[in-house]
Structure formats: C-alpha cells, structure tokens
User: Fold this.
Amino acid sequence: MKRICSLLVAVGLFASLFGMGGKEAAPVSGKTVSVSTLDGSRVATTIEVPYDPQRIAILDMAALDILDALNLGDRVVGMAGTSLAYLDKYSSNKNLANLGTIKEADLEAVMASEPDIIFIGGRLSGSYDVLSEIAPVVQLAVDRNLGVVESVRQNATTIASIFGKEAEVATLMSDFDQRIAALASFAAGKNAVIGLCTNGGFNILGNDGRCSIIGTEIGFENIGASDVTSTHGNESSFELIVELNPQYLFVMDRDAAIQANGAKLAKEIIENQLVMKTDAYKNGRIVYLENPAVWYTAEGGITALDIMLQDLEGVLLK
Assistant:
C-alpha cells in the first residue's frame, strides 16, 4: 500500500508542476509549527505542520468536532463519512470529498483533495505512514490517565495552536469542570456497572476505555471493571450482572451507534428476566446513553463532551 501511495504522490506532484491538478490549492504561508501527536505505533512524537493551513482532510470525528467549535470548518476539503447529527452540515455538503471511513481511508481520494494537513484517529493508526506521504498527519487520542476532560482540553489546544486560536479553547472549555464536579457530587458513594450492547449481548467496560469518564472523573465505583478491557469491553453474562447487583447500570448501544442493520435495541437486550432482579432495574436506575454515536465515534471532541455530559445530567441531575 505504501508503494501505491508513493506512486500517487509522484503523480500528484507531476500534475501540480504541469498544471494538471484541477482546483488550485490556496497557498500556505510557509511558516510551520511544532505539534505533539501520535505516530503509527501510537507513540508520542513531535512533527512540523503548516501554520494556519487552508485545506484540511478529516478522518476523525473528534478532530472535526474541535475544528467546528473553533469555526474552522470552512477549511475542510474532504472527510470520512459520519452519521453524527451535529456534524451533518459537513457530511451533507456535496462540495466536500468523500475520503472513506474513520477505519479505512480512500487514499486516492485523500490525495486528490490536496490537503495541507490530515487529521486521523486511532482507528487509522495503521495508515499513518502512508497518509504522511500525502501531507503531515496529526493523530490525537483520549489519554485515559489524564481523563477525558483534560484530554479534550489538551487536544483542542494542540489543534488550536496550528491556527493561532489557543485563546479560544479556555472559553470553549469553561464550564466542563463545574459540570463534572456536580455529577461527581451525585455519584459519590454509588456504584455502577458500565457497558455496551453489541450483537445481541452485553459487554462490560472498565475504566481504561470507552465511557471511562463515568467511573473516573465522575466517580461511580465501577464494580465491573477489570485490569484490562478489550476494545469493545469484556463479554459478560447476565448472571454476572445479577451477581454484581449494581445500584446503577449505564448502557451504550453500540449497534445503534454504528447503525447496524436488524440489530435489537439495547433496552430489548438489557431488560430481561435476569437483569430485572437487580437493584438498578428495580429502582429505575438503568441509564441508556441517549447519544451512543457521539460516545462511540466522537469522544474527544468539545461538542461531543457537552453532549455526553448532557446524557448523564438529563438522567442523574433532573
């Protein structure tokens, strides 16, 4: 694949030199800025990227979320497909190139969009090197040791620094700490099982992956957590949930998030005769995260964080 992309790069350079490239890209100033990012092995590294780039390729929804919050969405020339309603103005814009998905980039389309910079997420780590042959690649992620809120703050600051908009991040992030504190006050002394529904079953999530904000920053005791959680949680039996007997049960519907055809709704899966024996069910404390696609595909974005907290506040603090 790398060899193919190298050929594409060469073809693109030839076309540019001889006026065959189609739409002419807006010039970049020539100034660069150093940013911290993750490489193809998800190891922290520092790279040089163009300062104030005019043409942005997006293959990560959290990055698009942050760029949108910074009013930089007009720089986007191509993006991966998304079903996130609050980013629909991009996915429905026929002037933007379709660059594939957040899991599989269309390299030819990325090349044709002539980006000055490319943003990707962890699902495309394996394509980092080949995409870097087209343009500098910025890959950001949620650092579970820092927590979701601080990761969003740092990643937003990193992106903002590329465009000279660092001062705007503090305003955009201004109320999150207070909202987390209010939820943490509610969660104090309470336990929960946190998980996701997928393929008709229920997987338990730990504090080291998706939805970790519930058990870490907000502070519910995650009684289902194990030392290591797989990508989509650890497969669980409903008998285990009865044995754990949580006070609260938080459920993300992964199948709804990815719009899986013919999938059962999370409520149909969870509210069975076994789970009905738990305190969480008896006391009406099963919390179905209202915006699963945001939790699943955009965690790490500023607006995404706002929506995620609303999903919790709307149930816990009403």
The first helix runs from residue 2 to 17.
